[in-house]
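Team,

Forwarding the record for the chain on the shared tracking sheet. I've put the sequence and predicted structure together so nobody has to dig through attachments.
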Amino acid sequence: MPLGNKKNNDSDKNTYTLYFDGCSKGNPGKSGAGAVIYKNEVEIWSTSLYVNDKQTNNYAEYMGLIIGLEEAINQNISGLCVKGDSLLVIKQMKGDYKANSSNILSLYNKAQTLAKIIKNIEFYHVYRKDNKRADALSNDALIM
């Protein structure tokens, strides 16, 4: 079942935000993913991942989301604001769009499973200009 916005507990003193992104040069083509977690607006973790030589942008976007959610779970983060510039991924995670593509269905299911582990989670679409760090990380994966 898709996840809508769950409200964070107002008594939480720490605010955690995950930004994610993916890129594909050629779509499909060489692809990378990036994710960064902030605690109270201070970067506490980030990573880049080379995804594949011939993968789509949507696939890479989901990989960025998954690696970020996995780290949030590893850090026992119970309240998380997730932001990405892929309107498709955000709308699918919120249940506004169905995930029908065979290419991303397994990734969608994995992301949903991971998101359900986090007690309070919200998904927001942001514009690329507001997702610069994750965008840079996804592109860095292509040159590593």
